[in-house]
Amino acid sequence: MISDKIHRSESLQRIAAPLLAWYGKNCRDLEWRREPLPYYVWVSEIMLQQTRVEAVKPYFSRFIGALPDIPSLAACPEEKLLKLWEGLGYYNRVRNLKKAAQLVVREYEGALPGDVNALRRLPGIGSYTAGAIASIAFGIPAPAVDGNVLRILSRIDANESCIDDGKVKAAFEDRIRTFLQARMEQIHPGRFNQALMELGALVCAPNGKPSCEDCPVEEMCLARKRNLTGSIPVRKEKKARRQEEKTVLVITDRSNVLIGKRQDKGLLAGLWEFPNYPGHLSYGEALLEAKKHGVSALRIQPLPDDEHIFTHVTWRMSGYLIQAEEMDALRPGERFKAVRIEKIEEEYSIPSAFSRFSAYLKGEEGTR
Q: Which of 299, 267, 271, 269 is nearest to 286 (CA)?
């Protein structure tokens, strides 16, 4: 049963002033905050999903520099789009970004609508992102409830409802919406939402012990008073990720490298990859697979093992660097082709799962 405390706004009233004062002194200087245009807020919020702020900063600058507005995003070729996103992961985020941009160009003359329900109808925009855009860019009293906000408010009220329950999140959203609507003249909704998010990112952090001594609302936090910060918020137990063993082949003549495009559906859909195979292949097995591409190997060396963690699966990867004869001798299959190594850096989006292996293209450092 959802605690009645979720529905009350008294604690929001109490924390508002010290929270906003703290935010004014401690908020990070972020490019998308300096000029909170709807497009900037939207792009930054999509990038920040599953990604740390510090990692997003250079990507945001590069993305906005290349695609400064919604029409340019809508018209961007997919290969360029994926290259701009390379390293951020979760590539469906940027594909949905483009789909939404195309819809905005068709239906809203290239400008994001200042309406929460209209925003939620765009691909890739859920309740949190719609609330963030509406409140920050348009000043609409809409909640933007993410994990940070759920964690903070659960601790403030010592609420032991499971925050993974959709009904719990909806109740928190209703509570914040009611509060913001009542305080429109005193509090900017976007500033209040960002203050909560910032507190969750910098002080009431998701991993490890919260820095309660630095919290502007410490005296109002019931979880702190009752020594419950280690058990609140309550989360569902996560399912264990499945493990997949893979062998990656970096086949190169030092000028070119063999890559193939992944299928259009599934994990890392439509991105480029090195040839890879289930299981850990022996030297002989790796050479046999290389020969299927027409490679006559001059040299083969093992590469250090690597691991990449996705949401539901972990790839445990071994690899080989295979120095081939001239790549013109290759007979790549339909999915594979030889490309210049410098073109990889400029044009082809290789997902971060393979980034460790990309490092060996220009030399043999680190082989053994």
A: 299
| pLDDT tens digits along 298-348 | 889 999 999 999 989 999 999 999 998 776 555 555 688 888 888 888 888
How far apart CA 292 and CA 38 sit, in angstroms, is 51
Task: Give the residue, 25 or 209, on which the prediction is more confident.
Answer: 25
Tens of pLDDT, residue by residue over 212-237, are 999 999 999 999 999 999 999 999 98
What does pLDDT average to over the chain?
90
CATH code of the domain made up of 242-358: 3.90.79.10
Tell me whether residue 45 is one of the annotated catalytic residues.
Answer: yes
Residue 317's H or E segment, with its range, is: strand 313-324
> Rounded distance, CA 70 to CA 101, Å?
6
Q: Which fold has domain 4-225?
A: Endonuclease III; domain 1 (1.10.340)
Nearest to 252 by CA among 178, 342, 117: 342
Residue 230 DSSP SS3: coil
Q: Which of 10, 31, 35, 45 is catalytic?
A: 45
b/e 226-241 (16+ beta carbons within 10 angstroms → b): eebbeebbeeeeeeee
φ/ψ of residue 97, rounded to 5 = -60, -45
What's the whole-model pTM score? 0.87
Distance of CA 31 to the CA centre of its chain: 18
